[in-house]
Design brief:
Layout (H helix, E strand, L loop, with lengths): L2 H6 L4 H6 L5 H7 L3 E8 L22 H14 L3 E5 L8 H6 L2 H10 L3 E3 L9 H10 L3 E3 L3 E2 L11 E6 L2 E9 L8 H4 L3 E2 L2 H15 L4 E7 L11 H6 L6 E3 L11 E4 L5 E5 L7 E9 L5 E4 L4 E2 L2
Parallel strand pairs: 1-2, 2-3, 3-4, 7-9, 9-10, 10-12
Antiparallel strand pairs: 1-13, 5-8, 6-7, 11-12, 13-14, 13-15
Amino acid sequence: MNRKDFLQRSLSASLLIGAGAFPFEAFAKTHGFQKITILHTNDQHSRIDPFPLDGGKYQGQGGCERRLALVEKIRSEEKHVMLLDCGDIFQGTPYFNKYRGKVEIELMNQMRYDAATIGNHDFDGGLDNLGVRMNEANFQFLNANYSIANTPLQKMKPYKVFKYDHIKVGVFAVGIELDGLVPELLYGETRYNDPIAAAQKTADKLKHDEHCDVVICLSHLGYSYEEKKVSDVVLAKETNNIDLILGGHTHTFFTQPKTYENKAGETVLINQVGWAGLMLGRIDLYFDDKKRKEIAKKSPIKIG
């Protein structure tokens, strides 16, 4: 349902908002719409501390302590908040070289992440190490297009359903081809399958079998490529039943989520927030009493 149709069906919203009386968020609050706030990160790359004050492009920015404070502030303001990550949690600073991802997972536990997927660099400590880190996590690791039989990654699931009052949110994930990016020794018997087919199968299951009101894909495919290659844009255009794609891998800084049309002619939003924990993504979902949804675009929040 597009924004115009949604508002026209919501009491007198079309008159009030069409006349510019007040923004949608204010209308939703005063008319009892249920709100779910989605916060997300990608490509953290073991950036625990803010960037050093060395004159560099990002000096003084980022840092897990600041991110935790920001997330907790938003949680204090909103009833329902999800925190999600789109992969490449590991690799990039001496923290990973020494502790092999343990620090990153402990900090994500403190921030109370709800779910995450894996990126190619999360294999950099080896398959056994990744399995250990998954077992240490208090949140769910997700991937729907890697075959993980005979690997230590058994904690990873294709999807998870979250329930907020009467609203069900389905979250699943897809990952990039490992061959050529990761040495085979590190990913072992992990096998890559077509992410488009896996995404469609999982989205259908979430929408029709699990009866989810909104379906979110955590992607580590990359936003878009000049060459013919699977990406978030291709995923959005070649599937249906996905409402929101949160991406990673290409370290793309969005100023706002981007809108695409899926196979059924419906709107899909894609968002990505760069890398290194410099930004926190935010998207607000609103539902009326008939579970019709409106997705409010938000600009990413700079950390530091």
